[in-house]
Amino acid sequence: MEESCAPQQARKARRWADVAAVGLVGVLTAWTIVGRMSDPEQQKYLVLDVVVGIVSLALIPLLARRPVQGALALAALATLSPAGTPSSTVGTLTVALRRPFRTAALVALAGVAGHLIQGAWQPIPGLPYLWFAVLDVVVHAALVGWGQAAQSRRQLLESLRERARRAEAEQGRRVAEARTLERTRMAREMHDVLAHRLSLLATYAGALEYRPDSSPEKLAQAAGVIRTGVHQALDELREVISVLRDTEIEDLPGGRPQPTFGDLHDLVDESRKAGTTVSYDDRVADSTSLPPATGRTAYRIVQEGLTNARKHAAGHPVTLIVDGSPGDGLRIELINPASNGTPLTPGSGTGLVGLTERVQLAGGTLDHGRVPGGGFRLEASLPWPA
Q1: Is pTM, for the whole model, over 0.90?
Q2: What is the DSSP string of 194-209?
Q3: Among 43, 65, 153, 234, which lies 20 to 30 A Cα-Cα from 146?
Q4: Mind listing the pLDDT tens digit for each residue in 317-328?
Q5: Bridge partner residues of 333 (DSSP)
Q6: Are 362 and 301 in contact (CB under 8 A)?
């Protein structure tokens, strides 16, 4: 309601300002006519002065819609009587405030010509014509300069306001994009983690279902692994929900650090305990100079590869080769047999899509597909600065 009243109040204020300006010009026009009546020689022009004064005041509202035409008409009236001078001055100033310099200069030139004609046939007593001409040029030049300066200042302020609005909008857009990207990253991160965790749980649950004759110790061990995995999955789900509510992971009680390249051995051991035969060939001699972000990406690549192998080719061996050095990059290759039928757990099919995006953001490449013999290969290359 207040926003709708603001423009109305502004229009009302402008209306009153226009009325006040016309009233001031009317006072100056009347003052000019009265002043001329003190000279007997000028009294014969009384009717002309009054008519010119009234007509010039009536033309002032035209300046709001057609400033150039209105100013030229007022300059023409100024040639007939000094009573048109106040209105003509307002016309010249209006054009200087609203139009480019060239247009304002031409209108001012017309005003100068009109006043020179006026001064020639109705000279001011006691003022030489030369000085009248000089004052005429100086006044009109000052009006043009004043109007152009005010116009430049107004344009500068509007430009600054527009820049501020754009900067604010751009900042808001960047914040929104950053928030969206961060949430997308976290969703992708949790997809990798939860898919891996749930595939392990499905493996152990399948063992309990299809091997009920196992010893009580093995059954208890599998049940304990399932219980621990469920708790871990719930903790990780709590983290992503908190992040999506704009809560930082570091602020969460018990928040876990992100995985690193050194955690690959634990990841492989975890898959081996779940029953997957993993041949792990680690050819990286020293990974201390590997950037943490690259190490995390490598971890997620291997995690996604092992998860897919466990889902689509459960019970078959997996070959994992990690090789690289500073300056040459880091190469990860994971090969497993082709799918053996129905997946162990249903998937959305977006895991490799998100992984490809993650690798590209890290500056690397990802390739995956069938290999001769019916297997499936996942290969990634990541930059490793020297």
Answers
A1: no
A2: HHHHHHHHHHHHHHHH
A3: 65
A4: 899 999 999 988
A5: 321, 379
A6: no
Per-residue DSSP letter, 250: G
Whose CA is closest to 225, among 297, 273, 279, 155?
273
Q: How far apart are CA 69 and CA 78, in angstroms?
A: 14
> Cα 25 to chain center, whole Å?
48
Count CA atoms closer than 13 A to 292's CA, side-chain side: 3
d(CA 356, CA 354): 5
Q: State the burial class of residue 108 (Cβ atoms within 10 Å of its Cβ: 0-12, 13-18, 19+).
A: buried
> Would you give the DSSP letter of residue 339?
P
Type of residue numbered 154: R
Q: Please report, for residues 91, 215, 221, the alpha-carbon distance to residue 224 in angstroms, rounded to integers and kept in the order given.
A: 92, 14, 5
- Of 348, 302, 347, 357, nearest to 184 by C-alpha is 357
Q: Which helix (H) or strand (E) holds 324?
A: strand 318-325
Q: Which two tokens stand for residue 357?
A: 């995006």
pLDDT digit string (tens) for 210-219?
Answer: 666 667 777 7
Tokens of 11: 């229009």
Tell whether the torsion through CA atoms of 242, 243, 245 and 251 is positive or negative: positive
- The residue whose two tokens read 């109007």 is 147
